[in-house]
């Protein structure tokens, strides 16, 4: 996802991490900036998913959903 407006940001990375990221970017023929942007988006998506899980957990418990297996059974039951 490319944005027409980009802002520069300064970040500090441990040397070993920076070297590993640069090597990965080179291997993929990408920029370091592109790798860091992807990592940031991935991180934010995980945080959104975790927040959604926290919001829905009480509702799921009321429905008797305590495990992933319980959720799978409910989904398969609804699909039948």
How would the blueprint of this fold be written?
Layout (H helix, E strand, L loop, with lengths): L14 H13 L4 H31 L5 H12 L1
Helix pairs in contact: 1-2
Short description:
70% of the residues lie in helices and 0% in strands. It is mostly helical and 80 residues long.
Task: Tell me about this structure.
The protein has 80 residues and is mainly alpha-helical. It has a domain of 40 residues. The protein has three helices and no strands. Helix 1 crosses helix 2. The model has no long low-confidence stretch (mean pLDDT 92).
| Structural shape | elongated
Q: What is the gyration radius calculated from CA atoms?
A: 20 Å
Count of DSSP-assigned helices: 3
Count of β-strands:
0
Q: Which structural class do you get from the secondary structure elements?
A: mainly alpha
Helices and strands, in N-to-C order?
HHH
Low-confidence stretches: none
Helix content: over 70%
- Biggest sheet record: none
Strand-residue proportion: under 5%
Distance between the termini: 37 Å
Mean pLDDT: 92
Key features of this structure:
single chain; 80 residues; mainly alpha; 70% helix; elongated
